[in-house]
Amino acid sequence: MFSNNFNLTFSGYWLDVNTNAMPDTSGVYCVYACAYNSLANQVSLIRLLYIGEADSVLKRIQGHEKWNAWKQQLLLGERLCFSMAGVSYPANRTRAEAALIFRHKPTCNTEYVSHFPFQHTVISTSGTNALLDTQFTVSEQPQPLTSLLRALGRTY
After folding, report:
1. How sure is the predictor about 43, in pLDDT bands with cuts at 50, 70 and 90?
2. Residue 142 DSSP class
3. pTM score, two decimals?
4. Whole-angstrom Cα distance, residue 37 to residue 26?
């Protein structure tokens, strides 16, 4: 079932050492740089690094090829931290992921940062959604010509 409106309820936050405690469900996920206060058992989110989607968020994060790239973004004292929102239908996951990336432009994302290939889409976020806008709308934005030419293997 395709949708134009998405209500994403995020749960988390899981530190990099506790990803095995994440639910093994499909959805979209956020990767953050955070500071962790062990005395208060509390995280303070600093910046959004990456947004992704997966059929199994748990397995995707634990085996993600960008893990080292995320770690390289961390400053002294910062840790990786994750949140996720369940979205079961694959086409809806991709569309929600694209909208979140296009709106927030995380530093480690490349796809969907400068173009949004879907029609009018409304996103509402709630729960552990720090650093994400709570409601926004995006509309189709064509891919820049240079990116399209590069994808076709041509350079100009």
Report:
1. very high
2. P
3. 0.88
4. 29
